Known about the structure:
Number of helices: 18
Structural class: alpha+beta
Strand content: 5-15%
Number of strands: 13
Amino acid sequence: MEQEIAVTGLIKKALHLMRPNGSQSPEGSVSNRTTARYLRDTKSGAIASRVAPLTNSRDDIRRAWSRSAGLAMDLIQNSGRLKGACDQVIADTVGVGLTLNPHPDLTGLGYSDEEKAEFIRILKRRWKAFWHDKKECDMRGKLSGPQMVDIGLRWDIAFGEVTGVFDFFDDADRSRYGIATGTKLCLVPPQKLVQDTNSFDGMFQGIRHDGKGRPVSYRFDTSLDGVRAKQDYAAFDADGRSLVMHIFDPMDATDVRGISKLAPAFRKHIQAEMLDDATLQMALLQTIFAITLTSETPSADAYEALEVLKEQGGDGIEYGKEYLGYLSGSLDAAADSRISVGADPQVSHLGPGQKLALETANVPGKDFLPFSNSLARDMARTIGCSYGGLTMDYTDATYASVRMETSSLWPVVARRRERVAAPMCQMAYENWLDEEIGEGRIPFKGGYLAFRANRSRVCLAGWQGPPKPTADDLKSAKASTERLKNGTSSVAIETGDLGVDSDALFEERQREHRRYVEAGMQSPYAPKDAPAQTPQVIK
């Protein structure tokens, strides 16, 4: 019996030791054992102190859109760093402009490979002439296509969306302005897209939707002859062509409007500006008062006390007179001396009890630059550019760091090009191609009816931007060569990374090769084992 009791005691002791922190059994007091769960707070209550109600993203954007747009424009217009960052984003995304690379699917439409290649060459040539002519592509006749894309990217940063309307000029308007095409794009500032919301009418933030959530019309704030009014524009025409351009990068599947890309960084950027201003003001103050002169000579209060002694009579009169005489002599001596801190600094003599001190600026402190750089990196991440592109600071940059920064940023640039810049060009391209084929300026087998029936696949195209930046061009070229050798890439892919049209490159190389051969010269494109050409003597 005693053995059974002992064994039982040992078991209880073992179970007690197995419990965390030696906590008591459930039969006793409540255990303080922590549990693994989401949002488990610490004793500081950091999570509990942060109020974070779950709201609808669409409603949040509606409430914050106007305020965020105003703040973004104010910061960009008054911050050289942000203005430069916006320009850097545009340069990274589109460079001097995106190049059309048509990929029409002409399967079953009677086109041979040669005919398809010729069709693509016509598209490229005519599109370039249209898109780079401000009189042809812009309804106002002021902006070329690449300029409109630049504005769209700035709007995407400041407002989170790009808006515009398409118009069509008839023959009378074309004759009036001396233009050949009718398709025109007119950019409309996103703040002109009103915030009207009426759930019963399917209207939300100026966009009316049908029962399936598709946009039907857009309501813009317009001004005609000085009279402001709200006007609805149909999203599509009867044939499905886009009449309104509205491009944004949604946060949630239910979003109907975008919001400024700078919104998540407003607080830190404003605080960083306040820190910069305070630091600069302190540095200027310390610079202005670089030298201080202190004196132990009594102030006006001391003189008043001496005057009281004189009024009391007796010995006080003599003491007051003697001390005042001493002070007067000291002041006269100090007045005759000069203190100069110019190009030839001199300190001839200081009065009794006077001390000269040279003040040194203590700001910015040693922690200012690391903290400021941290804020700059946060802003660069928000905007979608590199730290070097934002600050132009490459002090501690190395080949490895630059390459790593470039590699991590390139997918962001490519995504922004695909989500914002390319759709702007694509929408204009589709409407333009519809007109070109419809009016017979670009021949198409089967005519306009065949194109209309296959519009979506005939209008397929890619938009090529600036090359992928590299820290070392030689190493990048060797890597490209190796990829071509081992079959993991193609000429089209590699030239695309360089921002070069592979078809245009091939045609240019072909023309140059023929030119050299016809002149009897060794072509730089000839095979290495090819016999040398005999130069022809021109008589």
